[in-house]
Amino acid sequence: MRISQHLLVFISVLSLTRAQTATVAATALESTVAPAENATTSAAEPWIAPAIFYPFRSAAGDTEHFLTGDESYESVALSTPYTFFGRTYNSLYVHYNGLLTFNQPEPASGPNYNPTRGAEDFIAPLWSDLDDMGWMGMFSYQQYTNGSVLTRATQDINQYFPQMNFTASWVFVVTWDYVDAVDMNSFIRHSAQAITFQVVLISNGSLSFFLINYGDCAVIYDQVEAGYDTINSIDHFVIPGSTNGYSVSNLRNTSNVNVPGRWAFSANSGLESIIGVQIRLTSFSDLTQSENIEAVLLRIKQDLFSRGLSSSIQMKLREVKKTQP
Ligand SMILES: *[C@@H]1O[C@H](CO)[C@@H](O)[C@H](O)[C@H]1NC(C)=O
Ligand SMILES: *[C@@H]1O[C@H](CO)[C@@H](O)[C@H](O)[C@H]1NC(C)=O
Ligand SMILES: *[C@@H]1O[C@H](CO)[C@@H](O)[C@H](O)[C@H]1NC(C)=O
Ligand SMILES: *[C@@H]1O[C@H](CO)[C@@H](O)[C@H](O)[C@H]1NC(C)=O
Ligand SMILES: *[C@@H]1O[C@H](CO)[C@@H](O)[C@H](O)[C@H]1NC(C)=O
C-alpha cells in the first residue's frame, strides 16, 4: 500500500507539563539586537550586554563578588523560597565556576558530566573551571520582589509559557562575567575575550521557572556543561553541544524559545497531564511498519528535547491517519 507523503501523526505525550508544551510552541521573537555601535564607539567605552540580559552588576544594585579563591562559592539566603522540581529551597549556592546548586555546594572544578549522577539539584549555565583560567572574573546577584524586573519576568514567562497567566512575585538574577584582562578598565570594557552569562530564577511563590542568557562565550579549553540536573536525575537537560568538550562559543546563538542566547525552562514537576501533539511530517515513512513508528517517535522526542523539554516525557502513538498529499 502506498502511503501518502503527508501523514498526520497523533501522539500522546505523557507526563508533559503544559508549561513545557508552551516552550515548544513559543515562536514569538524578542528583539535581541544589542545596542547599535556607531562609528565613534571605541574601546574606551564600557561594554554593553546583549538586550536579552536582565540588569546586573553594581549599576543595577547587585551584590558583587570578585574572584578570589579557587573552586569557591557564596551561599545566598532567598527572601522567597524557590521550588526546583518539587523541592523547596530557602537558600542556594552561587559558584564562580558557572554553577548554581540548591541542596549542597559543589566544589568540583569541572562537570565530568554523568547524566545518571543525580546527587544534586543544580542549574549549570556554564559549568567549567572558569576560576582557573587566569582571567578576571566575578558574579553579581540580586533578588527582586517589585518593580520593572518583575514586570519583565512576567512578560517573558507568559510569552514562553502562555497558558499559565503567570504573575512573577520574586526574581533572582545572577550574572557571571569573565574577561581575559588584568586591570579593571579592560575588564569593564571587555577589551579582551570574555565569557558572560546569566541565570534568572522566576517564581510566583508556587510555580517556578528559570531563564539562562548567554552573551560572549569565548572558546575555553576545559570541560564544560550547560543544562540542569536534579536529585536522582528525574528531570535533567543538557544544552545540545555543550558537553562536546572545550568549545562553547555558539551558546549565544542557541535557544529553545527562538531568541538567540536565551533558554527558558519550567522548574515545576507534578503538573502532569496528557496532551496531544499534531505533527505534519514532510518526509516519506511507511508508518504501517512498527520499526518506522519507533524511529519517527525517537526523532520527534529528540527534537522536543533539543527545544528544552524534560527528559522524563514518554511518547505513544495513538493514531495514524492517511491524508491526501
Ligand atoms: C554614538 O553613540 C553614542 C551612544 O550610543 C551616542 O551618545 C553618540 O552621540 C553617538 N555618536 C554619533 C556620532 O552618532
Ligand atoms: C521595592 O521594595 C523595596 C523594599 O521594600 C523598596 O526599597 C524599593 O523602593 C521598591 N522598589 C520599587 C521599584 O518599588
Ligand atoms: C489572569 O490573571 C489576572 C489576575 O491575576 C486576572 O484578572 C485575569 O482574569 C486572568 N486571565 C485569564 C485569561 O485567566
Ligand atoms: C502561581 O501561578 C499559578 C498559575 O497562574 C496559580 O495557579 C497559582 O495560584 C499562583 N501561585 C501563587 C502563590 O500566587
Ligand atoms: C552566531 O550567529 C551569527 C549571526 O547569525 C554569526 O555571524 C556567528 O558566526 C554565529 N556564531 C557562532 C559561534 O556560531
From TrEMBL:
Q: Looking at the keywords, is Coiled coil present?
A: no
Keyword Signal in record: yes
Q: Which GO BP terms sit in this record?
A: cell-matrix adhesion
List keywords of the entry alphabetically.
Answer: Signal
Pfam assignment, any one: NIDO
Q: Which residues form the signal peptide?
A: 1-19
All copies of domain NIDO, residue ranges: 125-270
What InterPro entries does this protein map onto? Alpha-tectorin (IPR052749), NIDO_dom (IPR003886)
Read off the PROSITE patterns from this record: NIDO (PS51220)
Output this protein's name.
Answer: Si:ch211-182p11.1
Organism of origin: Cyprinus carpio carpio
Organism lineage reads as: Eukaryota, Metazoa, Chordata, Craniata, Vertebrata
